[in-house]
């Protein structure tokens, strides 16, 4: 395995998302596109260092999206004190 595999895989991912831009915007928004690609590259390089396949799993891609949306996942603690969520459709009780 080599860095060339990471480059090929990343170019395929970027090409896919550029051809399906609406899917990318739905996932991460226009502003965070480059940051999304950078995080995906980091995950690919980490897989390479660990001797795994360069391809990313669904969980790894989901973790990257969450890291973009939430920030550091290790320090994330949801607010469980407010069980009523107000939406445009009315109040939803998260019980």
What does this protein structure show overall?
The chain is mainly alpha-helical and 95 residues long. It has one domain (3-75). It is 58% helix and 8% strand. It has four helices and two strands. The chain has helices at residues 3-19, 21-28, 33-49, 58-70; strands at residues 84-87, 90-93. The chain has a two-stranded antiparallel ribbon. Helix 1 (3-19) runs antiparallel to helix 3 (33-49). It is elongated, with a radius of gyration of 17 Å.
Summarize the structure.
Helices cover 58% and strands 8% of the residues. The chain is built from 4 helices and 2 strands; from the N terminus they run ααααββ. It has helices at 3-19, 21-28, 33-49, 58-70, and strands spanning 84-87, 90-93.
Question: How is this fold's topology laid out?
Answer:
Elements (H helix, E strand, L loop, with lengths): L2 H17 L1 H8 L4 H17 L8 H13 L13 E4 L2 E4 L2
Helix pairs in contact: 1-2, 1-3, 3-4
What descriptive keywords fit this protein?
95 residues, mainly alpha, two-stranded antiparallel ribbon, 4 helices, 8% strand
Q: What assembly state would you assign to the polypeptide chains in this entry?
A: single chain
Q: Tell me about the biggest sheet?
A: 2 strands, antiparallel
What letter string, H or E per element, gives the SSE order? Answer: HHHHEE
Q: Tell me the distance between the termini.
A: 48 Å
- DSSP helix count? 4
How would you sum up the global shape? elongated
Helix share of residues? 55-70%
Strand order of the largest sheet: 1-2
Low-confidence stretches: none
Q: Quickly give the structural class.
A: mainly alpha
* Total individual domains: 1
State the total count of DSSP E strands: 2
């Amino acid at each position: 395995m080599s860095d060339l595999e990471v480059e090929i895989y990343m170019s395929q991912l970027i090409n896919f998302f550029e051809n399906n831009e609406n899917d990318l915007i739905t996932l991460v928004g226009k502003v965070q596109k480059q940051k999304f690609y950078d995080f995906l590259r980091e995950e690919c390089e980490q897989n390479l260092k660990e001797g795994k396949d360069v391809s990313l799993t669904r969980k790894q891609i989901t973790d990257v999206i969450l890291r973009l949306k939430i920030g550091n996942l290790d320090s994330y603690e949801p607010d469980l004190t407010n069980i009523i969520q107000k939406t445009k459709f009315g109040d939803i009780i998260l019980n």
